Amino acid sequence: MNLQIRKDLAYRRIAGELFIVDSAKAEMHELNGPAALIWEGLAAGKTERSLISAITAEFEVDEKTACEDLEAFLKTMQKAGLVSSVQPR
Amino acid sequence: MKQVKKAPDAFSGSVGLAIAGFGVEFKSDQPGIISVLKNRYPEFASAAAAGHRFETFEVSGRQNPFKPAVVLSGSSLKIKRGDFEGVLDLGKGSGTLKAAPNEQCLDAFLRSLISFLLLRSSGFMLHSAGLVKKGKAYLFLGKSGAGKSTLSKLAAASGAEVVSDEINLLRFEKGHFRAYGSPFWGEMRSDGRQGNWPLGGIFLLKKAKINRVGEVRAGEALKLLLRCLVNFDKSHAAAELVLKNASRLLAKAEFSRLEFSKADGSFLGLI
Questions:
Q1: B176 Cβ partners below 8 Å, 6+ apart?
Q2: Average pLDDT, stretch B63-87?
Q3: Which residue of A37, A63, B11, B61 pairs with B1 in a disulfide if CB–CB is 3.0 to 4.6 A?
Q4: B239 and A19: CB-CB below 8 Å?
């Protein structure tokens, strides 16, 4: 997983939900549940393995489901232009 | 933007304004801008206004691009539209303003400047109606068509003081939010007045057949709050401030939904 959150985005957890403000596009995104957990994990630089572990622990889903959820979420975020690929060092 | 030639009989004048607790002073050798400001903001004139001083120059220019661009570079703030360009050194509190001498132009400049300053004072400029009841201010959030003007007119007809039917100004001071008198109005086209009141609550506005107050989820309140925010600064730092201030407002203020009937001002009994 070589993805990172766009540096110009502002985000904050408010009232249990995570809000992302994309000022360049004047858009706002709202994440909750596993999506918010993954976003914060990405922001903290967590690995794919640790993100899957966090999802299985927090939401009582099996590893296969967590893996699929993670992949689907990341695709959605890439499509929305909120995360981008980075070259491995 | 072309500079307008100075009139032969050189005019020297100044006007100070106090809006949301921010002092803004304009000086000019030309009569147009000072005259427009004095006529447009009579209730916000303040001899003691200080804080931000602009040497002003009259220019002709079209509004295009219509949306102001606000850029902060170091301590230099630039606010620009087709018909104005303001540059302010925030450290020194002084700068220049080149603008067309008309109300629309100067109104747009002041909205851009005050919204920038409010965001950096833990506050907001919000598309909303604002009323005073029993010494407290109540804001009613809504985009166009939500009923801000209707509600404001009904409230005024019932004897309540309207702070603004279109744009209200919030600041966070000594642990509490306060609403400030606003010179920025919509359909009611009032001058407004200076003053400030503790914030009593914020309502999400909805037209209905009967009056009713209901609960609202924090996420829903935040979404509408951000949609009603007046902010021309598209920087990352501004976005961070928006979320920080919004988080504080949600924690400090009571948010509810107000469904109101346009029959009369009886909804005031629910506030």
A1: B198, B199, B252
A2: 93
A3: B61
A4: no
Interchain pair B236, A10: CB under 8 A: yes
Query: B-chain residues within 8 Å CB-CB of A12?
Result: 243-244, 247
Q: What residue has token string 């909805």?
A: B206
CATH topology of domain A3-84: Outer Surface Protein A; domain 3 (3.90.930)
Q: Tell me whether residues B239 and A17 touch, CB distance under 8 A.
A: no
- The domains located in chain B, with CATH, are 2-119 (no CATH), 124-270 (3.40.50)
Specify the pTM. Answer: 0.89
Q: State what percent of residues in chain B have pLDDT above 70.
A: 95
Q: Quote the pLDDT of residue B67.
A: 87
Chain A, window 17-46: residues with a beta carbon less than 8 angstroms from a chain B beta carbon: 17, 19, 21-24, 26, 28, 30, 32
Give the integer Cα–Cα distance in Å for B259 and B262: 10
Tokens for B146, please give them: 């939500």
Touching check for B244 and chain A: CB below 8 Å? yes
Euclidean distance between CA atoms B244 and B140, whole angstroms: 21
B67 and chain A: CB distance < 8 Å anywhere?
A: no
Digit-coded pLDDT (tens) for B170-188: 999 999 999 999 999 999 9
